[in-house]
Amino acid sequence: MASFSGSCSAVATGQCLSATVQMKFGGPQDPARRTSVQDLVDKTQEAFPHDCYRAIPGEGGFRGFPPETAFEYIKQYGVAVEANHPYCSQQTSTPTPPDSPRIRIEDYTVKRRRLPGTDSPDFDIQPIIRQQPIVGILTAYESLGPHREGVYQGAKDDDDAKTVGGHAVVIFGYGTENGQDYYWIQNTWGPEWGDNGIAKVSAHLFIYFVYPNLEGITIQVVDCVGYVVTSHVFGYRVSYLSTEVFENVETHLENV
């Protein structure tokens, strides 16, 4: 069932990067090329403790973190692949095998929305979405949990007006419905949420976006003392749509 927990950034970042890798190679899903969300959950807060939130009650001491911190971890240390470090829904101390391939990014970009009442420039994120999936952080309300269809527009009434914090999702498309701009999102709560895990969310709810830069990704196999054994570099310029994150959503992209 949908819940607001600190792991959403790890899951969304992992899904976003896995989708990009899948778009490059195509073919069947391969855990050997899929980002290990568990590695992000276990190691990001260890690497960047000052960037993490306070411990979340009921989450076993897990401290959530923003997606840019997850991308910084991938940039500096690389992230293991799922085949070597599978997801288990809780923080662990299980070490990643020393010869596990690690996916790295050269850099990432953070784009913040224009704040009301300020002179900060706005920007158009749509050209980026046309090239690659991105992570978006939206203002979440309790009503997001039971949302099933239509464009989610935020608080439904005064009882729902209190936010439950920021929530990270994968954005893979955009459109306009009845004059309302929205983004197509893949949530981190599984297929029971929304329409098989995806939904349209009003653009005005998003606070900022994070995505890996287009220069490329490196998949490295590192030996036990840290030397790169093999390295394969490939670009992000790939045909758009990943079956892993965005399965069965081609019909929703007519406005992209």
UniProtKB/TrEMBL annotation:
Q: Name one Pfam family in it.
A: Peptidase_C1
- InterPro entries, per the entry: Papain-like_cys_pep_sf, Peptidase_C1A, Peptidase_C1A_C
GO molecular function annotations of the record: cysteine-type peptidase activity
Matching entries from SUPFAM superfamilies are given as: Cysteine proteinases
Q: Which GO terms describe its biological process?
A: proteolysis
User: Where in the numbering of this chain does the Peptidase C1A papain C-terminal domain appear?
Assistant: 1-213
The UniProt similarity line reads:
Belongs to the peptidase C1 family.
Q: What is this protein called?
A: Peptidase C1A papain C-terminal domain-containing protein
Species of origin: Rhododendron simsii (Sims's rhododendron)
